[in-house]
Each structure stands twice: as structure tokens, then as C-alpha cells.
Amino acid sequence: MQDNLTKWNWKSNPFVLTIDPKLFTGYEEQVKAMMNHIENKHKVALLTGNTGSGKTSMLKWLEYNIRENVFYVSKPPQNPDMFVDIALDAFPLTFWEKILKKKPNLHNLPKYINNKLKGNHLVFLLDEAHETNKDVLEWLRVTVDQIDNVSLTMAGLPVLEEMLKEKLETLDQRITNRITLTSLTRDDTRDLIRKRIESVGGSGTIPFTEDAIDKIYHRTGGFPREVLKHCDKLISRVDKKVIDASDVDGLREFTPQNVRVDEPVVYFSPKPPSMDQIKSLPYKQRKIVELLSNENWVTPSLIIEKLDFKSYKTKGHAIRSTNNILHRLMLDGFVQRESRGKTFMYSLTPKVKTMFVEA
Ligand SMILES: Nc1ncnc2c1ncn2[C@@H]1O[C@H](COP(=O)(O)OP(=O)(O)O)[C@@H](O)[C@H]1O
Ligand SMILES: [Mg+2]
Fold first, then answer.
1. Residues in contact with ligand 1 (CB, 6 Å cut-off)
2. pTM for this prediction
3. With contact defined as beta carbons under 8 Å apart, do 160 and 130 qualify?
């Protein structure tokens, strides 16, 4: 390994799984949606994605770029009382407050924070939010209601969505933005690799050839953690100066992992679909994609209503079959879904949508 580092003039291994906001890449739409949430001072956003999709990276990027009145919590505390200490870290007591023993308790904490904020906007970022217990959720709900000017972002695994709906409907109702991290594009994958290499003193994407990067992208679907792991394996196992596509093929025993963690949905496709692929889809799949290209978010029942396929015996058959087709389309990267209330809504993935706009 050490040899490899000197071979390319690297100060250290660029592919360790660390988080540095300066190396954040891609996810343009999601970044825009997050910034929009914050600039508009919306109350609650959910940021979901599988382990390694980049949630913590995104929050750290926001923290780094906002800088003022931003408050990142890496894990929800077990007990709401701990928010007092967290808040005191962010907004310490003044000399006089100490003398007068004005340390806040949980009950008057919103008031204390409002005083400290003096009308300024507070950005509250909570990571690993799927681990939040009901007491803490209750407290978060009270907090977003009582702090004048706060935007909360809760980041967690996809189960967070269901978990909130079940545990605390009243907080769920305050969610205005639901943002999902899936995977990077081919160009962003290249950029991620390049930034990492340059950050340790290397040059461009050396030692990877463009073909090698293509292969890495296809094998990882652009899933950030997997990209880094592939690169790490390659630089430590390949004993050459240049790494090309055949070396990526050579990583046989290292099959790409199914990134699903605890939801039966894999949110990335191995390859971004092409217009030709859309044209050669089976009839019903193609009809659904075409319908979605003219809509924003739709429910399966609206799809059934609009398409009116005659071949189904009963409504139940139609629903099951449509859900299966949507699932297939989702696995192949044509379609994405979000849960809204008690139902799921579907739309084309941004990439496929753009293809229709361009066509
Ligand atoms: N958009 C991104 N740009 C650059 N690196 C990323 C990005 N997303 C994830 N990574 C890298 O992938 C790894 C996993 O990301 P992380 O933010 O820890 O994911 P999560 O919090 O969703 O589990 C980290 O090493 C991180 O640096
Ligand atoms: Mg994380």
C-alpha cells in the first residue's frame, strides 16, 4: 500500500470512508431542495437514503456552508433532557446568566433559544434520526412549534419515513420536504474520485482510466460508499501504475453489494436507462413511463384509472399488477417513489424525466 501511495505521490489513501465537506460532490437536485427548505425557513425536512448514500456528508456540507446558527447532532439522544446540554454547547450561558443561575431546563429551553437567536434563523440537523424514540420526537415537535424561526432536517434510513408516521403523526404532518439520496451520476462519480485523489496531492483521476471509471460506475451504480470501496480495493490490489477496465473486471470476488439495508427497495439502477431502452420496454411498462412523463407525482390508482388496461379481471388484479410493474421500473431506474400519507406516489427519476424533456 505504502508503495502505491508513493507511486502516485499521494500523501495518504484518498479512499478511506471519511467525511470532508470540501469533497462533497453531485446530488445537485437534492442540494437545491435542502437549500430551498432552509432559505424558505420551512419547519421540517426528511432526508432519507441507505447507509453510505451520503446523508451525513450532506448534513456536514450544510453545516460547513451555513456556518451560523447551525446545530448538527450526530445521533438523537435517548432522553430529551440531553438537548439542554446540546443547546448550551451551541448557545453558551453568558457571564451574567451564570451568575444569576439562568441555566435553562427542558421546559424553558425553547424560550432560552429564542432569546439567544434574537430573531435569527436556526438550522437544526439531526442525523441517524431513525433511532429517535417517542419522547425525543415529542420534544422535537414542541421545539419546532415553539422556536420562532427553526428549520429542522431529520436524516436517516428509509425506514424513518414509516417510523415517523407510526410514532408521531403530529410531527409527520409538519414535514414539508422529503428528500431522498439515491446515487451519483457517471460524471459525479468521476468527480468524486478526482476530488479525493487531488485532496491527497494526486493528479486528476490518475491512475484510473476513463474506461475504468465507467466500469466502476456500472458496478456500483454510483452509490458513493461502494465507489470508494471499489477504488480502495483497486489501488491496494492492483500492482500497476495504471488501472483500467480489465482491472475492475478482475475484482471478481468483490461483487457489488445489494445496497438495501432494511427496506425492500433498491434505489439505484446499475446503468442509467436510455431512450432506446424506454422504446423497447414491454407495452404496459412503456405506457406507464409515458404517462408519468406528463405528470408529476401520481398514485397507482390514478395510473390504473388513466390507462384503463382492459385485460384485468378485477380491480385487485389491476392494482397488484400495476404495483409489480412500478416496482420493476423502480429497480431499473426509470421510476422513483415517495410515501405520502398512507399511499405511495410515483414519478419518473430526474434523469429519465430530462430525457423526455430533451426528446
Ligand atoms: N455526495 C458525496 N460526495 C462525496 N463523497 C460522498 C458523497 N456521498 C457520500 N460520500 C462518501 O461516501 C461515504 C459514505 O457517506 P455517508 O455520508 O457516511 O453516508 P450515510 O450517512 O448516508 O451513511 C463517506 O465516506 C462519504 O465521504
Ligand atoms: Mg451517516
1. 17-19, 23-27, 49, 51-57, 192, 224-225, 228
2. 0.71
3. yes
